[in-house]
Amino acid sequence: MRIAVIGAGALGGTFAALLARAGHDVEVTARGAGLDAIREHGIRLSGGYGDADVRVASGPVLTRRPDLALVCTKAQDAREAISMNAEHLGGIPVVVVQNGLDGIATAEELLPDAEVYGAASIIAANYTEPGVVRVTTTATSYLGRGDGPADEGAVRLAGILSQATPFTAIPNFRGAQWTKLVVNMLNAVPAIVGRSVQEVLADRGLRRVVAAAMRETVRVGVARGVRFGALQGLDDRGLRRFARLPLLLGQLLPWSMGVRMGSVPNLGSTQQSLRRGQRTEIDYLNGAVVRQAALAGVAAPVNAALTALVHEVEDAGASLPPARVLAVLSD
Ligand SMILES: NC(=O)C1=CN([C@@H]2O[C@H](COP(=O)(O)OP(=O)(O)OC[C@H]3O[C@@H](n4cnc5c(N)ncnc54)[C@H](OP(=O)(O)O)[C@@H]3O)[C@@H](O)[C@H]2O)C=CC1
Ligand SMILES: CC(C)(CO)C(=O)C(=O)O
């Protein structure tokens, strides 16, 4: 099958390499040093899915119409990346592999006749240098759209993508994006202090801040009338129960996520942008919680403070001491 991957970075590079290894005809788009490296040596994948050096067609834009496309840029780049390739994406299934709440809507707006799905991935992939990706945690990715049952298209696409790495078609994908947003409360603190996700979760104080951000995200979702979708052992009932717990008990949720992530250090996708000197996706993660809270007429002080701290790190180009993060809970 002809499969396009738009944005061959950490996750896009992983999927492109695994799909090519599974025998698909893959074309990727990339830019700058990433594109130069892929042109020169292909995509180099290592880690949880084994080693693969894969040659794929590559360029700044697609050259042909694929049968299926994955959009794998960060949220802030998705609009431009989809627009640049829109002429080849009409009428085909397009899967937006993206954290945050906006991916599907952006693609639907730009590609009115495409069949747009979303994917929430729990894989942890680190883009260690241009064209080189290391998978530090293997996991299932979840695919769907809307808030109803998983439709036939989702089941079919999950089957195709599972030839490379496990994908499951799920019901209530809209709610699952919120569940993934809760999981992505793992991103900000490591990005601020410059440590791996596992190191942050091993620290009692920092773990409490992560738990507070997660609890606040669930409370905001509840205030917005969200029914959380089931993903990675989390579901609506469990998350609502978690949101009522004191932090002393609630911190067990991020702790268990850290255990599940394994011991190979994962920086998280937000910190990886910072280490490359780029702006991050934070306005679509913790920043989305703040916007949703405003719509519900409730406050989200923990997420607002973490968003501001990540922007401070972006501006300064250097991480901040853990005390700045711990102060979030005493503000
Ligand atoms: N990494 C991970 O472990 C996980 C990531 N996610 C989510 O997946 C999405 C992708 O994240 P991730 O893979 O980490 O991001 P990366 O930044 O590693 O990869 C995105 C790639 O897209 C490229 N890109 C951006 N705009 C364009 C464009 N117009 N044309 C071509 N290429 C473009 C970027 O280039 P450049 O390098 O020049 O910016 C970058 O290489 C995010 O929403 C993230 O939150 C979800 C689960 C896990
Ligand atoms: C699941 C997790 C935390 C994996 O790193 C992720 O989604 C991210 O880094 O953005």
UniProtKB/TrEMBL annotation:
<feature type="domain" description="Ketopantoate reductase C-terminal">
    <location>
        <begin position="172"/>
        <end position="314"/>
    </location>
</feature>
<feature type="domain" description="Ketopantoate reductase N-terminal">
    <location>
        <begin position="3"/>
        <end position="147"/>
    </location>
</feature>
<keyword id="KW-0566">Pantothenate biosynthesis</keyword>
<comment type="similarity">
    <text>Belongs to the ketopantoate reductase family.</text>
</comment>
<comment type="pathway">
    <text>Cofactor biosynthesis; (R)-pantothenate biosynthesis; (R)-pantoate from 3-methyl-2-oxobutanoate: step 2/2.</text>
</comment>
<dbReference type="Pfam" id="PF08546">
    <property type="entry name" value="ApbA_C"/>
</dbReference>
<keyword id="KW-0560">Oxidoreductase</keyword>
<dbReference type="InterPro" id="IPR013332">
    <property type="entry name" value="KPR_N"/>
</dbReference>
<dbReference type="InterPro" id="IPR036291">
    <property type="entry name" value="NAD(P)-bd_dom_sf"/>
</dbReference>
<dbReference type="InterPro" id="IPR003710">
    <property type="entry name" value="ApbA"/>
</dbReference>
<dbReference type="GO" id="GO:0008677">
    <property type="term" value="F:2-dehydropantoate 2-reductase activity"/>
</dbReference>
<dbReference type="GO" id="GO:0005737">
    <property type="term" value="C:cytoplasm"/>
</dbReference>
<dbReference type="InterPro" id="IPR008927">
    <property type="entry name" value="6-PGluconate_DH-like_C_sf"/>
</dbReference>
<dbReference type="InterPro" id="IPR013328">
    <property type="entry name" value="6PGD_dom2"/>
</dbReference>
<dbReference type="InterPro" id="IPR013752">
    <property type="entry name" value="KPA_reductase"/>
</dbReference>
<protein>
    <recommendedName>
        <fullName>2-dehydropantoate 2-reductase</fullName>
        <ecNumber>1.1.1.169</ecNumber>
    </recommendedName>
</protein>
<dbReference type="GO" id="GO:0015940">
    <property type="term" value="P:pantothenate biosynthetic process"/>
</dbReference>
<keyword id="KW-0521">NADP</keyword>
<dbReference type="InterPro" id="IPR051402">
    <property type="entry name" value="KPR-Related"/>
</dbReference>
<comment type="function">
    <text>Catalyzes the NADPH-dependent reduction of ketopantoate into pantoic acid.</text>
</comment>
<dbReference type="Pfam" id="PF02558">
    <property type="entry name" value="ApbA"/>
</dbReference>
